């Protein structure tokens, strides 16, 4: 299997579901050993791209190379070996509801090794301590807040010290302190494991400025930018500037006019409000 | 279903999951099955007694109840009850796991979702359905005893003597064969509906899970009755 840091190379990708094309002409390289942030608006295809990198969906056209391997050309057994080297934080954590946090974090070790769960627990507690959840090891996911579930999802993604860590919206829904903590954790991972390639899908600009080495911006179904954070900051592309400066595209006409409700609707609403 | 059965033998950690599912499917259905069986047996006792007495054959009540339960009502009603209770739970649980990315999380951890989720449920169903059917038969026969003997005054010795002389091993084995087939039907249909809840055309998200759960129960019940007719025609 691949040695050293893994590049992720996207070659003329066309992605979608059935007849619906979500992304087209996607060509970029996410450098190995760096933190790459895939940026874009809501519904812009970021998670779709991530699912294809994970091999959960097949592209309509094009190729994805992980560490030089065309993942969809690999025999199933080889691809499964490759995927074992990925740690994934899903958007809402995707923790198994019937298992405690400790069981969730240690699940892949329990299933794939001959270690007893008691033996795995030490490592599990260490991973949970990285995300500040060591005191919640025996809680079930539904006993925790959304942010805590997300942090536990990250602990599970890190359980096997994977060379490739993929995070889907790691800071969304977190308060600023926890979001900053998540960023700090990803930076610490990069420090501790120089060969770890980290890909974070996000639309959180604060997080982008904190962690990104490389940025891939998606817009209008294709790649709007691929380059370093510095290059992005200095760009004069109108869309990218609006995105980075958080400027509205246009004020929707209906909102600008703030139209009066139809009399019939107004009367019904007033009657309900005064009831 | 075949993939689920194949995956049953692929891992070394399956026993714990099977025992857990046996608890969910079997032990937690115990009181429901006992309740339904008791009232089914009691109703059979009442109906059977008043019908047989017209022909002066009320002494055959034990045989009527035992054969009805062991060959037909036990396997069918137990399977339908478990489909409603545990089958719906299987479809809903797996469906929720599907729409909340939990199955994808298993896949990327290189844990075969079929081996992890489906196989233990099929195996546990194959073990628990015959046991629940046996429980249904025994409690149903006792229910018939309550209404026929205790309430209507029939001779208790005759009741059990007729059971002893009329029920043969072929009847019992036929009932268990049915329960095994019904176990396969309920577990595989329920797991299938939950596993592919995200591909349903009649809804997305929680609506899809709800529809998958409904489909699991309805389809299981229909197939149980169809399979019962086919099996009965071969077994008789």
Q: Could you walk me through the main structural features you see in this protein, from its secondary elements to its overall organization?
A:
- The complex is a heterodimer of chains A (275) and B (236).
- Chain A has twelve helices and ten strands.
- Chain A has helices at residues 46-53, 76-83, 101-105, 107-112, 117-130, 146-157, 176-192, 205-211, 229-233, 238-244, 253-257, 263-273; strands at residues 8-17, 20-30, 35-40, 61-66, 69-70, 86-89, 164-168, 197-202, 214-219, 222-228.
- Chain A has two domains: 8-85 and 162-273, P-loop containing nucleotide triphosphate hydrolases (Rossmann fold, 3-Layer(aba) Sandwich), CATH 3.40.50; 94-161, no CATH class.
- Chain B has 236 residues and is an all-alpha fold.
- Chain B has one domain.
- Chain B has helices at 2-7, 14-25, 30-52, 61-99, 102-108, 113-151, 156-166, 169-195, 205-235.
- Chain B is elongated and about 70 Å long.
- Classes of the chains: A alpha/beta (275), B mainly alpha (236).
- At the A-B interface, helix 4 of A face helix 4 and helix 5 of B.
